[in-house]
Structure of Shikimate kinase:
Amino acid sequence: MTARNIVLVGFMGTGKSTVGSLLAERLDWKFRDSDAVLEEEQQSRIADLFQQHGEAYFRTLESKTLAHILEGERQVVATGGGAVLAESNRTCMLQNGLVVALTASAETIIARVSSDTNRPLLQGNVEERVNTLLEQRKSSYDFAHTVIDTTELSTNEIVELILAQVVK
Ligand code: S3P
């Protein structure tokens, strides 16, 4: 497939940013992390935006940031884990690139996110929060053009699998 952009979606801790930056390097495309762009634009950490304004406010900003990023091309875009929840975001992603969903087992995700302080939805008992959200979102990433289970794969292997689907 010839893609304008590659959009990585997936639950927190599935490796979107790590995979995305390596993939962008390999393609000689720009890497954009939508959470990082949003933090830069707002001059505020995501955890603080949630705390001060609530999740709905964050989601509105997230949609605007994503739509703006996706106006560009030759970019690998790592999205926030909840960006898939709004139908308008899903449509925008599908229209502007190859959408790749990264998945991982609950154990892998828990191990990867357990020391993180900038993920407001995982505050408290991380294991419980991850399991609850995974259950709530169990079909949320199915809209992607392709789904890759990263549990047993290295970053390089994931990048190779994605590259195999893209014609630059
Ligand atoms: C969220 C995931 C986070 C970030 C915010 C909300 C979610 O991004 O956008 O904390 O709802 O899953 P990562 O998937 O990059 O952690």
